[in-house]
Every structure is written in C-alpha cells, then in structure tokens.
C-alpha cells in the first residue's frame, strides 16, 4: 500500500512540475523560443557534422581484411624533379607475392575511365572500367550476386558488371552468360554480377575485365598494385621487403635504359622509393598523381571536429546565460 501511495504522489508531482513548466514557457514565449531554438539548432548542426566526419572515416572499411590491405605508391626524385604517384611498376605486387610468404594475396588494377557499350544499335558512352587480376575478389570484399568470384575473371573477354549496370543494359541481374559489345571491337561474356561498390570506397568500378599481358618493365609506373599481408605482419616489416625488392630488380632496368646503376643515381641525390599506403588511409591521406578518384582531406575532418566542439559549447553557454538572466524573475 505504501508503494502505491508513493507512486501516486510521484505521478502527481511530475504532472505538477510539467504543468508549471508549460505555463512558464507559454508565459514567456519569446524567451522560450530563443532559448530552445538556439540550443536545438546547435545540437542539430553538431549531429550533421558528426555524421559527415563518421562517413569520411569509414572509407574502404567495408572490406573484411581492410586493416591488412596496402596500395604501393611511388615516391621518385630524379633529375631535380619530385613525383609522387598512386601507381607502381606492373611486376611489383606479383614479385612480392612470389618471393615473400608474408604476402597472402595480391591484385593489380589498370583503370580505363571511358568505355563504349553497344545497345540496340547505339553506342552508349559509359565510365569506370577496370582491368584486374583474377585475384581481385580475393583481396577486396565485394559480394557477387551471380557468378563465381574465383573463376569470373579467368577467361579472356569475360566481364563482371555491377548491379546498376546490369539493370541499365539488361533490366535484370540474371545476366550471366549474356554478352556486351564493347568499344566496337569485342564481345564480352558476362561472367558475374556484383553488388554496387559502397559509396565509402576509393574506387567505383562498373565494368571489371581481366588484365592482358603483364608489362615486365620496372620503370613503367602505370599500375595500381595492392597486396594483402598475412595477419600479424606490420607495415614496417613489409616495407623492408618492398625496399629489398626494388633494390634487387629496378637496378637492371636503370642500367639498360639510363645507362646508370641505382647506386650511382642514389649517390647524386636521386631516389626510387615505393611506400605502403594502408587501404583505409587512402581517402583522407592520399593526394597523389593518378588517384583513381578524387579523395577527401583529413584537414577538413579535423577542422569540422573542432568546429563541432565550439558550436556545441556556444549553444550550451548561450542557453545557460539566457536561463541565468531569467533567474531573478524566477526567484521573485
């Protein structure tokens, strides 16, 4: 009985407080509106900025092994010219996979932005085509709606397309076995359909085709090289293997084409360095030549984070100041 009585008293008190609060708000409409709108606006702006920052920080994390995937980037200083590229020599990733057991898998990408697709006797310009190794789906986690990811890119003139592209050209995703006539010269057999690559990715390929013949030159920086290292392998450990590989193989090409050894060029201040760029750092920390897509900027993330704190602080201070200004009347 005492419990019921206490509960009833609490309910009555709560209703009384609510009634008094609503009466005060209604009595001081202008003051209440300014106070509530100011605080609500500040919180809303902060929430929007938090969502933006969270989105920027989530790029490429959809990959199951995102923390073990690296891109190989070029840092070259030659003949008084500095160059930083998002690409590397074609043989680099393959050589690392062949010679170092710590590399679990590798894949290479050659990006072709423009592509022509024939539909109903009309050539339709399209974009975002990539030529990749058959191991592409072993490195990146991109779910396949139809087809076998292990064998989808093993046949010449095969092609994997995303869900949007399948609906665009066939009005269906059940298109494995059908063909697309590409660039006025090739019939490509559809061997797989993938889900659309998430927005939070540093690349968005609509057409994926198998790579052709490898380029064996160590001086031709024209390929995006990605490696998947085994669990427990640190970036610094893997970087030593990359450096050793470059020192071992690039010297011969330098002597054949530039008639100078790597040691001689290095002694004159030149360098040919290839860095490991963590996959999850590409969007915010990479602004190199030949990026597949325009990336974000970590500076903006830091700046907006600081702005969020200031906006929230100002909104709270403003709310407290207005409330304090009314305290005399409340006391009276």
Any key phrases for this structure?
elongated; 332 residues; 43% helix; 10 helices; alpha+beta
| Percent helix | 40-55%
Question: How many distinct helices?
Answer: 10
Tell the overall outline: elongated
Kindly report the average pLDDT value.
90
- Largest sheet features: 6 strands, mixed, barrel
- Report low-confidence residues grouped into runs of 5 or more: none
Distance between the termini: 39 Å
What Rg do the Cα atoms give? 30 Å
List the helices and strands and how they pair.
Elements: H1 2-27, H2 29-57, E1 69-78, E2 81-85, E3 88-89, H3 92-99, E4 103-119, E5 122-132, H4 136-139, E6 144-147, E7 158-162, H5 163-170, E8 179-182, E9 186-194, E10 207-210, E11 221-229, H6 235-258, H7 262-267, E12 271-278, H8 282-285, H9 298-325, H10 327-331
Parallel strand pairs: 5-10, 7-9
Antiparallel strand pairs: 1-2, 1-11, 1-12, 3-11, 4-5, 4-8, 4-11, 6-9, 7-10, 8-9
Helix pairs in contact: 1-2, 2-9
